[in-house]
Amino acid sequence: MARKKNSSAETTxxxxxxxxxxxxxxxxxxxxxxxQIATEVGVQAGTLYLYTADKQTLLFDLMQAHMQDLLxxxxxxxxxxxxxxxxxxxxxxHLRHHRARQDAVFISYMELRNLEPxxxxxxxxxxxxxxxxxxxxxxxxxxxxxxxxxxxxxxxxALIAMLTGVTTWYREGGPLSLARVEDIYWDMVxxxxxx
Amino acid sequence: MARKKNSSAETTxxxxxxxxxxxxxxxxxxxxxxxQIATEVGVQAGTLYLYTADKQTLLFDLMQAHMQDLLxxxxxxxxxxxxxxxxxxxxxxHLRHHRARQDAVFISYMELRNLEPxxxxxxxxxxxxxxxxxxxxxxxxxxxxxxxxxxxxxxxxALIAMLTGVTTWYREGGPLSLARVEDIYWDMVxxxxxx
DNA sequence: GTCTATAGCGAGATAGAC
DNA sequence: GTCTATCTCGCTATAGAC
Lengths: 195, 195
Known about the structure:
By secondary structure, the first copy, chain A, is an all-alpha fold. Helices cover 69% and strands 0% of the residues of chain A.
């Protein structure tokens, strides 16, 4: 008897994605059951399969959406001829974007190993494209003498790791404002590349 | 009395730890079954419980051993009065130590969320002690004017994230030797703190 | 579109033979 | 010290009612 009428499929889909994102980030993909996700959304476990083929596809869709979002936001930034300006723009963009999406960032790094090979390759390719963008800025700056660094690609890895690390310790309401954190990181980035 | 022990018992314990470390790092704690670990070792699942109380304890023991190993190795380094020398020593030590223990490093960061609260606190305390060591070097260097940085604690977070990142991309047999990678990172670290 | 119910499986952990 | 056998539980995914 008593089944929920009047529920909107329009809102159930995003609610499933939000619940899965939060739970996967908090406990890990393998540790979260479809039942937990359903409970969080307020539906029965079987209902989830109206919206996703299976658990793996749900994970992949979350990661793919995150990476597409990231690359689209990067592409939407205004072009910068000056390597130093481009690096500052990238630094601040990366910090802001990642900080605002801690759960998705965490999952997209952490759950790579839980993707089936084909899905893994597709996500990895997008991640490489993002890294290549920064490496390109650094290589240009190195060529023009704006930067002084031994290896542009390695520096790109190092800087991205440094910047992404902010998601592991920064908490809203702490002693430092996000703007201040941005300035401090930009100061270190700038120096690290010998600008 | 001194009844002679079965010879394989001496080797089974470390073999369990090695198998668990490798499998947890590769697939994640929650995704690995006790049966898989047992198969890897070449024993039956029930045999594992001769060596560990349960799966959670096995994870905690691996992480605790890793952190104790890290702190002991850090404490064994020769004292350095000069902040710059201390920073270089720390940088090279961190890279070498983490690079040689990729699986344990990965687990100790990734599986924190799968620890029960009490176990989590104990591991976190050791991680904070390690961070505090670097923050101390930076604060001393800032006080003496050797370094130019806005925030020693934040810089410690940033540098550790940057250095630990090497474990995600460095592969033996790649184009760069570990010594070369060390030199490149040390170059960036040095510049980043305004030395 | 969501529910109840369940099939089918594999998990963690334990008991007792050898 | 290790094995076989098993208990009990919770999981993913599906079927069919409403």
